[in-house]
Amino acid sequence: MSVAGVPAARTALVTGASRGIGRAIAVGLAARGVSVGLVARDRNRLDDVVAECRAQGATAVGVTADVTDHDDVAAAVSALAGGLDRIDLLVNNAGVIEAVEQPFLDTDVEETWRVVEVNVRGPLLVTHAVLPVMLAGGGGRVVNLNSGLGFRSAEIYTGYAVSKGALARFTGLLDLQYRSRGVRAFDLAPGHVETEMTTAMPMHAGRTSWTAPSDVVDLVAAIGDGILDDLGGRFFRAGTDTPASLLALRDDILAHDARALRLPTAGPDDPLS
């Protein structure tokens, strides 16, 4: 079920790789024999993760960059593509959320925009730089770390929700525009992984049940292996979905055009149908 002629990923680029979910994905892929290129802003933490990946026996290269800076991204991708020889899998993980849980009018619009910029401009710049490398190698897969807040309205985290909704649209566009050239794109919500970011969020105060980082890694690895290619352009959630459960739902998802950003209509008589 993989994209015709596109083999399982041998190399991956992961942004926001110095901590949290990005670190777990990088180390998890390395443990599966995937060579990894890592991008983050914190040099010391990044070096630690590079060492962890190499301890798994994998090739690992780390480059510091701000994903919202065009020149930083271009230089980082060029360096990593040279160090890895190719990029088969891109994981756009780097992201931020507002510091305070407030409705829109109570927030600083500049803070809201900062969140949108990191979470949307970052993946746009990184993907724009990686895609030519990926296409030159015959294709590949892009994973955008998304959230359920990108698909439903909420009373808080305006910038975060807006950014993830925009990211979902980007995923669908990317998959549609480049699938004929061997590229698939996916939205992956990591669930509630216990990280520095999530534990600082009041909405998770007192939470005792967390999504295992290995659940996220399993889905990223399955995407990289190509077994979920038929579901390109769609939304998965770690901790709820597994590769096996998604394959079991495959026909229903495709038949109902489900798991994607769509405008529901009122039925066959709705003029928007």
TrEMBL record:
Enumerate the CDD domains for this protein: SDR_c
Whether Lipoprotein counts among this entry's keywords is no
Q: Name one GO molecular function term.
A: oxidoreductase activity
Q: Which InterPro entries does this entry report, sorted A to Z?
A: NAD(P)-bd_dom_sf, SDR_fam
**Any Pfam family matching the protein:** adh_short
Q: GO terms for CC?
A: membrane
Q: Which domain of life is it from?
A: Bacteria
Sorted keywords for this record are: Oxidoreductase
Give the family this protein belongs to, as stated in its UniProt record: Belongs to the short-chain dehydrogenases/reductases (SDR) family.
Stated name of the protein: Short-chain dehydrogenase
Which species? Jiangella alba
